[in-house]
Design a protein that fits this description.
588 residues; alpha/beta; Alkaline Phosphatase, subunit A; Jelly Rolls; ten-stranded mixed sheet; five-stranded mixed sheet
Length: 588
């Protein structure tokens, strides 16, 4: 008992409490309301990628206006990459717990048994919709439409043009999935997401709604109408930063269009608008460039997307709700994170949270409403794994209000060194020791998820035809994972199994393809094809111009894995990039 008391006293003296511990959420003053909620999440836009945060190059008048009117979380953190942030945002739980710690290789799939924000809102009578980038699974039961969103318009994979996306999508006049159907849309992708969101809001303005508007911009590839990138190129901004900034400028223009529509519909006052981004900048900072316009801007932070330093995971987060008293300009500098969004929205909106797994986040309501000490004493953790199996001490940050531990012997004092230039671990060994212990406790709490992989289900009436793509292979390395369509065109060698659950036993047809199902006239490019699944291994010869290798076999219900191989003369074998699976009926 004495040791525990001493440990707690040392933590308090260093301004630290145990991770997961937080202040009790204060009640929202006044009568509970049911505001509309719009959660905007942009992709790869860092803290410094808007003018209001000091960027001297980019022009973001609508974001600046929202910033000037909002309560701003200036010490807000996410995971350093896309899918992990999205899973934590949706669940209020650390991303690794949900099965997500990569953006590809089967590790971007979120456990379908997690309780999502959309499911919470739907259980409370809200109309739910998502637009844009999901990146937590493209097959049943992992899709947005399976996870509480009643209306969905989205692309596939982690970006337009990635392997699960509609073939040939290039940001302009693409095909997207609308409530499970692949349909054509006119216009630039970001314009489509906002246009569809506005149409949904118009249709549902008489009922409370929750809109999750997750743009793929400004994620690469960096494509945008020329009129948005030209002004930056004329200022001497190099490629691809000129297009990256142009994508943000287009996004900014759409934000203004959305806000004007809310005002026109009389919805602005009772709509809670949350704006945030998913990780640090991807193309807005080049520290070694000689000219200021070529360097970009990173708000004085170290690191960019993927980094465990501040520039990888500290991002903008604004709350604006005139009818609920959340107006600015006002800054909240207390430590907060993506895992806090779900409990915060539950409290702000007066929702009843259905039973679910324990949350890691805490409600930010007290801090948002002016309590300057509500979140001072807490510990948050993030890491960037991006490998098949997590490794201890890999690219992590243990964060308190003052300190950042970014390696076992690398400590930064954010109060005196916000740019993380001076490692002070030798000067504060007690702090290092305590934060290491926090990391160890956190790591042990995550371990059960490492060996509990998320599986795609086949044979479900909810998805009668399942199209698997190489994006979700459980590869050994990223080089073996053709995660975008350019790699598919090049025919890169690689392979790995898909982890599956057969929902209903029966007779199944598996169609192995080199190209996606809607691409006709192109061969499988092999002389022999093999499938291994549920203890069965079948092989067949392939003719030179044959497009598909078809296998029919009986599968029992339960977990399994599927591995394919296409042997090519004179080349290393590779897996079938696409497999189309259909249940034909009961088994033998």
């Amino acid at each position: 008992m004495l040791a525990k008391l001493n440990f707690t006293w040392l933590l308090a003296a260093a301004g630290i409490v145990l991770w997961g511990a937080g202040p009790a959420a204060a009640d929202v003053p006044g009568k509970a309301t049911r505001p509309n909620v719009i959660l905007i999440l942009t992709d790869d836009q860092g803290y410094g990628d808007l003018h209001a945060h000091g960027n001297p190059i980019i022009r973001t008048p609508e974001m600046d206006r929202l910033w000037a009117q909002s309560v701003r979380l200036t010490n807000f953190h996410v995971d350093p990459t896309c899918s992990p942030t999205r899973s934590a945002l949706m669940t209020g739980r650390y991303s690794t717990r949900t099965g997500v710690w990569h953006t590809v290789m089967g590790r971007s799939l979120m456990d379908p048994d997690e309780l999502t924000l959309a499911e919470v809102f739907a259980a409370n009578g809200y109309r739910t919709a998502m637009f844009g980038k999901w990146h937590l699974g493209d097959n049943y039961p992992l899709r947005a439409e399976d996870q509480g969103f009643a209306h969905v318009v989205r692309h596939g994979g982690g970006g337009v043009g990635q392997t699960p996306d509609a073939w040939g999508n290039d940001y302009f006049d693409d095909r997207y999935w609308k409530n499970g159907r692949l349909l054509p849309f006119e216009g630039y992708c970001t314009d489509v997401w906002f246009r569809e969101a506005i149409a949904f809001i118009r249709r549902n303005r008489e009922e409370p709604f929750f809109v999750y508007l997750a743009t793929n911009a400004p994620h690469g590839p960096y494509r945008v109408p020329e009129r948005y990138r030209r002004p930056y190129r004329q200022q001497g901004v190099p490629e691809p930063m000129d297009a990256f900034y142009g994508m943000i400028t287009n996004l900014d223009e759409n934000l203004g269009r959305l806000r004007r529509e809310l005002k026109r519909l009389g919805l602005e006052r009772n709509t809670l608008l949350v704006f945030m981004t998913d990780n640090g900048t991807a193309a807005g900072w080049r520290p070694r460039a000689k000219r200021p316009q070529a360097r970009g801007y990173n708000a004085g932070m170290r690191g960019t997307k993927g980094s465990n330093y501040e520039g990888g995971h500290r991002v903008p987060c604004f709350f604006y709700w005139p009818g609920g008293g959340l107006v600015g300009p006002r800054d909240v500098d207390q430590l907060a994170a993506h895992i806090d969004i779900l409990p915060t929205l539950v409290q702000l909106c007066g929702l009843r949270k259905p039973p679910g797994r324990p949350l890691d986040g805490v409600s930010l309501v007290s801090a948002l409403r002016g309590n300057r000490h509500a979140l001072r004493d807490r510990v948050l953790l993030v890491h960037s794994q991006r490998i098949p199996y997590p490794q201890k001490w890999r690219r992590f940050a243990v964060m308190t209000q003052r300190w950042r531990l970014t390696a076992q012997d690398e400590l930064y004092d954010l109060e005196n060194d916000p740019g993380q230039r001076h490692n002070v671990a030798a000067e504060f060994p007690a702090v290092v020791r305590l934060l290491r212990q926090e990391y160890r406790r956190w790591w042990e709490s995550l371990r059960p998820a490492f060996d509990r992989p998320v599986r795609i289900r086949i044979g479900s009436p909810r998805e009668p035809v399942t199209v698997l793509t190489a994006h979700d292979w459980h590869c050994k390395t990223l080089r073996e994972c053709p995660w975008n369509q350019g790699l598919i065109v090049r025919g890169v060698p690689g392979n790995g199994p898909w982890l599956l659950t057969v929902e209903r036993p029966g007779r199944y047809e598996l169609r192995l393809r080199r190209w996606p199902p809607d691409v006709k006239g192109k061969p499988l490019e092999g002389e022999q094809a093999t499938v291994e699944i549920a203890g069965q291994k079948l092989r067949q010869q392939v003719a030179p111009r044959q497009e598909v290798a078809v296998f029919t076999l009986s599968l029992p219900a339960g977990p399994t894995q599927l591995r394919t191989e296409v042997v090519r003369p004179g080349h290393p074998p590779r897996g079938a990039y696409y497999v189309v699976i259909r249940r034909l009926g009961p088994g033998d």
